[in-house]
Each structure stands twice: as C-alpha cells, then as structure tokens.
Amino acid sequence: MGANYCPMKGNVILELSLDFSVSVIEFCEVLDAQKRFVIAKQLLRSGTSIGANIFEAQHAESMLDFIHKMKVAVKEANETLYWLTLCERTRSYPSSPELKSEVERIITILSKIIITSRSKISKR
Question: Which own/partner contact pairs does 20-29 have at CB distance under 8 Å and 24+ positions apart?
Fold first, then answer.
C-alpha cells in the first residue's frame, strides 16, 4: 500500500482532515525550527487530533457515538483555529492563512455533518 492509502476514499471530510494534518505537521516543523516549541506542540496535538477523531467516527458504535466523535473533532478544530490565530497575531511567529482558512472550512463541514446526523436521529 502506498503512502497515500486511505481506507475511506471518497469520504470528503476524512480526506480533508488527513491533508490538513499533513499540512499542520509541516507548519509545526517550521515552528520547531524557529524554537517555538510550546505553540508547535499544542498546534500539532490539536491539529492532528481533528482527523484522528473523524477517522475513529467512521467506525462508531451508534449514530450518537458518531455525533459525539464529530463534536470532539469540532472542538479540536476550534482549538487549532485558536493556536493559528495566536501565531497570526504574534509578530515574531510565522503564520499560515491557508491553514486557518482550511480549518475554518473543516469546522463548517463538520458542523453540517453533525446537524444532518442529529436530524436523522430525530426522524426515527
């Protein structure tokens, strides 16, 4: 299997989150190179956790479990947005408008997934 193997090809949010995680790793390497270790560690943890929770949600035990895991992913995405905004506002730090825009897009998609999933439960 190649480096780009993904068991859920065609799952847009999963693909976005995996690509985002790779970009976060690369940006954190830039932060590390500039000795911005504390922010790099926080951003790396929250930024990669988004995809981990989405990936885990694909094998949820129930719709409620799925929603819970997606809500955790949104929380991690919001924390990631915080760290990226902090980098942006600190003059001596590098920033990444692309990452910030991408995480905002992920938050929007996750929020829509959660709303849709909740509506499926209420229709039962």
Answer: 20/47, 20/50, 20/51, 20/99, 20/102, 20/103, 20/106, 21/47, 21/48, 21/50, 21/51, 23/96, 23/98, 23/99, 23/102, 24/48, 24/80, 24/99, 27/94, 27/96, 27/99
